[in-house]
Amino acid sequence: MDGALGIPKGKYSMYKHGMCPAVSRVQFAFYKEEKKIAEALGIQTVDFTEDQFFSKGSIMGVEYGAPYSDVILPPIVGPDSVEHRYFTEDIPVGTVVRYRLAKQLGVDAPVIESMVRLGSLACNHDFLAEGVSLKELGLDGLSREEVVKLIRG
Description:
The chain is mainly alpha-helical. It folds into two domains: 1-77, no CATH class; 79-153, N-(1-d-carboxylethyl)-l-norvaline Dehydrogenase, domain 2, CATH 1.10.1040.10. 54% of the residues lie in helices and 0% in strands. 17% of the residues are buried.
């Protein structure tokens, strides 16, 4: 359809076309593991309920407190390949760092690990080898207390 949901014909939008209950379940599971990492550090995070991940505007609309978020989310196009920054930046930076921090803190994070491993396979990259290390961030080998002190410092 030409211009469906504000997206030009022939274009894909993760925010408009990629949301479904299966994706929301994965997002919620990922969020629960993020919460475990934060709890291991003694850091309080925003609490979201499972049903908030299933809203029309996704968790982004809830997080930013956007009324009618399904309408105001901009018509962002993409990703259009596995070389898009949503893969080549988000996985080796944000997701790999979460995974490594979870391991260092002894937090079980099978969903986060799966995202790194499946993303690596899909993108034909070794994001664990290429991704940001805790050493690069000055977090390698630090205790929970030392990590928190560095973050808050």
